[in-house]
Design brief:
Helix content: 55-70%
CATH architecture of the largest domain: Orthogonal Bundle
Largest sheet: 3 strands, antiparallel
CATH topology of the largest domain: Ribonuclease iii, N-terminal Endonuclease Domain, Chain A
Shape: globular
Distance between the termini: 42 Å
Radius of gyration: 19 Å
CATH superfamily of the largest domain: Ribonuclease III domain
Structural class: mainly alpha
Number of strands: 3
Order of helices and strands: HHHHHHHHHEEEH
CATH class of the largest domain: Mainly Alpha
Length: 243
């Protein structure tokens, strides 16, 4: 039978107690962990629709992650200027990095998702893994505070920051474009979702980047974050920058 990354049979969800043991924390509020591991596609298949899924936790986890990473690079890389700090943080907290952290943890083996996502190999998709990792951070934060979330994150953050500061990671096009535009204080960048198409397990997002009120470039990706990066990359290319 086909197996997932952590050795579990694909489609079989591992018990959350095994994940607690893996991350070294027993939840006082187990429902937080269960929500963090639940994709919206699973909740949408339940009748009645009362299952809590992880999108709200993802929102909070993104902020907690940013605080932890920002404090770490601020304290440990004191010679880096503000622009470099922003680039390093953006590289570490981007979707591709978070998906890599989730794979190291074997997080995909614990996710609950709908049949369509399961058939579409959702456990292996960067966007789903990254979102679940952020939701897990939020669950740890709500269950036992910022220190607990930071302890969990450090084994992932420390080597990722070291690699990013050594210049071995892929480019963050949004930050690069923002730095160019900021040279003119009158200019403002914004990103707008144009469309999303396809089934839940295989969506394609289209995002347009605007300079003030003028559309500059369009990007497409399997998540909104990826589409924004591709839109920024195309904008940089049109500006004559090397990408």
């Amino acid at each position: 039978m086909p197996k997932g990354e952590g050795g579990a049979v694909r489609g079989a969800v591992r018990p959350v107690a095994a994940l607690e043991q893996r991350i070294g924390h027993r939840f006082a509020r187990r429902e937080l962990l269960e929500a963090a591991l639940t994709h919206s596609s699973y909740a949408n298949e339940q009748k009645p629709l009362t299952v809590v899924y992880n999108e709200r936790l993802e929102f909070l986890g993104d902020s907690v992650l940013s605080i932890v990473v920002s404090q770490y690079i601020f304290e440990h890389y004191q010679t880096l200027p503000e622009g470099a700090l922003s680039r390093v943080r953006a590289t570490v907290v981007c979707e591709k990095s978070l998906a890599g952290f989730a794979r190291k943890l074997g997080l995909g083996d614990f996710l609950r998702m709908g049949r369509g996502e399961e058939l579409g190999r959702g456990r292996e998709r960067d966007s789903i893994l990254a979102d679940a990792f952020e939701a897990l951070i939020a669950a740890l934060y709500l269950d036992n505070g910022l220190d607990q979330a930071a302890r969990f994150l450090m084994p992932y953050v420390e080597p990722a920051v070291a690699e990013a500061t050594a210049g071995h990671r892929f480019k963050d096009y949004k930050t690069e474009l923002q730095e160019i535009v900021q040279k003119n204080k009158e200019e403002r960048l914004s990103y707008r979702l144009v469309s999303s198409s396809g089934p839940d397990h295989d969506k394609v997002f289209e995002v347009e980047v605007y300079l003030n009120s003028n559309p500059v470039a369009v990007g497409r990706g399997k998540s909104k974050k990826e589409a924004e990066q591709q839109a920024a990359r195309e904008a940089l290319r049109l500006m004559g920058e090397e990408v």
